[in-house]
Every structure is written in structure tokens, then in C-alpha cells.
Amino acid sequence: MTAQPHASAPPYAIFIVAAEESGDALGAALARAVKAADPTVRLSGVGGNAMAAAGITSLFAIDELSIIGVSAIPRRLPTILRRIRQTVAAIVKERPDAVVIIDSPDFTHRVARRVRRLAPDIPIIDYVSPSVWAWRPGRARAMRHCVDHVLAILPFEPDVHRRLGGPLCTYVGHPLVERIGELRPGAEETRRRQSDPPLILALPGSRTGEISRLADIFGAAIERLAARVGPIELVVPTVAHVAQQLDAAVAGWVVRPRIVVDPLEKWAAFRGARAALAASGTVTLELALAGVPMVAAYRLSFIEAVIARAIRLQARLPSVILANLVVGENVVPELLQEACTPQKLADALLRVVSDTEDRRRQLAAFAGLDRIMKIEGSPPSAKVAAIALEAARRGRGGVSSLIEAPSSG
Asked: Which 3 state secondary structure label does DSSP give 82?
């Protein structure tokens, strides 16, 4: 049942804050879902092109919030702090019935803390939990002072927040759930997965540092694989902002790949792929949902690796691979740092390209994702919209905490 104001009351107002491209996409989906549930709602906020297309005019261009490299932080910090103050001032002036902050905790949590101090009656929802399970677990308890409800996109995160003393946390589903039809193969694509030459995906990352550290290793691993299995069709999906760098990085690969930038081509490649070699990250969950067995790898600089090892020990993470964490089993081999060598990657890839126990184990684990991630039922954006509208109703009634999730299918 959609929460709607009394006929004589003004429409509900919801302020959405997204500070980067991925959050902008979530904000746009949320805006559309809110309008579908209650067309009278007034939406405003901070976002990018996607949110603008969904009808939200941003206070400023979020491009200026992006920081690339530690050296850029001091130069950009005055701008970022000014935009935080501007966002807070707009929220306090508008007095929306609810605020939804999306990801980017270094920006959005600062906004939330100031809003809570200046306008404590406004409910604040945090869409996408920070990774308190892996980094700075103390943030969970600290969030209780400025966030009323965390909406998690990973199924294990509500338990983590309960254990760490964080705010009320509800799993609403991963945004990938809404694209499941683009990830799953049809009959023809299933046949392609089983036919020769095998279609192999190489995904050395979407950041410049990842590509510079992994591209040569991935190329050499694929070369070794081809020497053992024969001809392969190699596809490298990427994103526009690193396409030129990637094109130069793969120029020396013996097995020449087809680079795809268009998301439609990327999903088509996922649907036809037999196996993948991927940098650790969200892409491992994409591949798992698509049912593509994989090998995950990563390399950091020496200092970054020391910090990462300390974090993993502190958090007691059984794996750093997102697909493994979600399925609850270490089925995807993780070849990190010194283990990330062409020969070891090729050996591991051979075991998932061929019909082996390793490949079958991954496929069996991935088959359980629909249950684990609650694929059936309302899409995540609709669940978030329902919670945001309920928060607005409670906010207008003077209730700004313990926003319970409405029942949804």
C-alpha cells in the first residue's frame, strides 16, 4: 500500500543525494520508482545525468566531486567541502519529508551528520551500506547518530550491522537483480557456451591502475591457455574512460581480443561466455549471476597490499572475492599479489574452461544465487521507493527513527 499524504496536505518531498556515477544510476531508478508509486511526490537533490533524465535537477554538477589519485585531494577538498555545505543548506531550507543518501560515504555521511545536527526531525536513509564488514567496522555504530535506516544491496550486510551495533538495516536487493534478463543466456547463447572455439572474457579492471598492473599478466595467461586448449574467442569488456588505455595495453597480446564498450555488447558477451578471467570487484558478482565460471585475480602496490592484508586479518574475511562472499563459499579461486602470475592464472583458467569438478562446483554455487539474493519479487528500486515513502510519512508525523521496511513481494 503506497504511503500518500492526506488529500488536503501538500505532496511528500524527498531529497536524494548521489555523488558519483553509480549512485546517480541508483538515484534515477529510485526516482522513477517513487513516481510510479506516488506521482505527486516532489523530488529534488544532487545527482548526475541519469537523475536529471528522471526529473531531478541537481544543485551542481557532481563531476567536480570525483577525485583521481591521492595527490588531487588537497586541490579538490575546498570544492568538496563547499558542496557539502551547499547540499546541507538546501536540505535544511527545503525541509523535505525524507532524505535518501546514496553510497559515496565520504561525501554523503558528512551531509547526513550536518543535517541531523541542524534538522534532527528529518528521516535519513542510507541506500548502499558502506563496506563495514571489510573496512572500518566502527563506522557501523557511528552511523546510528545520523542514519535511521540502511538499505543494503548485499544479503549478508543486515547481519553485519546487527553484530556491529549499526542502524536498522534491510536487504533490498542488488541493482544487478533488475538486469538479470540481460545476464542470463537464452537457448542459442547456451549452445554458444558449449561450442568451440570457447568464448573467454578477460576483465582486467576499470581503473587505470588496475589495467597497468594486470593487463600484461592477463594477456600472458590467455596466451598460455590458448597453447593448451587451442583457438579461443577472446572478448574484453570495458568502459569508455579507459578504453584508449586498454586498447594500448592489449596491443602486444598474442591472442588478440575484441574490445567492447557498449553495455549491450558486454552483456551479450557474458551470455555467451564459457569462462572468465577477472579483476576482483563487482564484476565477479555479475559473472556469477550470469553463470560464468571464473578465476579472480588482483595486484596492489606494496604499501596497498600491506594495508589490505591487515584489513583482511582484522575483518576475518574468508575471501576478498565478492562472488564468494555472497554465495558463502570459496568456489572462485583468488590469485592475489605473488600468486597472480601468468602460469598460475592459466592453470586455474584451464580448470574452469574444461568440464572439471572446479567448474561444476562454481556452477552449482551460482545456481543458488536466486535464493540467496531473493531475485523473485519486487525489484530493488521499488523496495527502496516503498521504504522512502514510508519514511516520508513517518517524518511528516514527527517520527525520524526506526523506519521499518514495509512488506513487499
From this structure: helix
Please tell me whether residues 392 and 368 are part of one structural domain.
Answer: no
Q: What is the CATH number of the domain that holds 65?
A: 3.40.50.2000
Distance of CA 76 to the CA centre of its chain: 25
Domain that holds residue 162: 13-173+376-396
Question: Could you tell me if 208 and 282 lie in one domain?
Answer: yes
Closest CA to 181 of 40, 379, 351: 379
In a domain, 191, yes or no: yes
DSSP 230-296: ---EEEEE--HHHHHHHHHHTTT-SSPPEEE-SHHHHHHHHHH-SEEEEESSTHHHHHHHHT--EEE
The owner of cell 583458467 is: 349
Strands 149-152 and 124-127: parallel
Phi, psi of 287 (to 5 degrees): -65, -40
Quote the number of domains for the chain: 2
pLDDT of 257: 97
Q: What are the pLDDT digits (tens) for 258-276? A: 999 999 999 999 999 999 9
Give 72: exposed, middle or buried? Use CB within 10 Å, 0-12, 13-18, 19+. exposed
Residue 374 to residue 378: CA distance in whole angstroms: 9
| % of the chain residues with pLDDT over 70 | 89
pLDDT digit string (tens) for 132-149?
887 788 899 999 999 999
Residue 4, judged by CB atoms within 10 A of its CB (0-12, 13-18, 19+), counts as middle
Helix or strand run (H / E) with residue 390:
helix 380-396
156 with 246, same domain? no
Rg (CA), the chain: 22
Domain identity same for 207 and 138 = no
Q: CA 30, CA 191: separation in Å to the nearest integer?
A: 36
Give start and end residues of each alpha helix (H) in 38-152: 49-53, 73-94, 105-118, 138-143
Same domain, 119 and 86: yes
What one-character DSSP code corresponds to residue 148? S
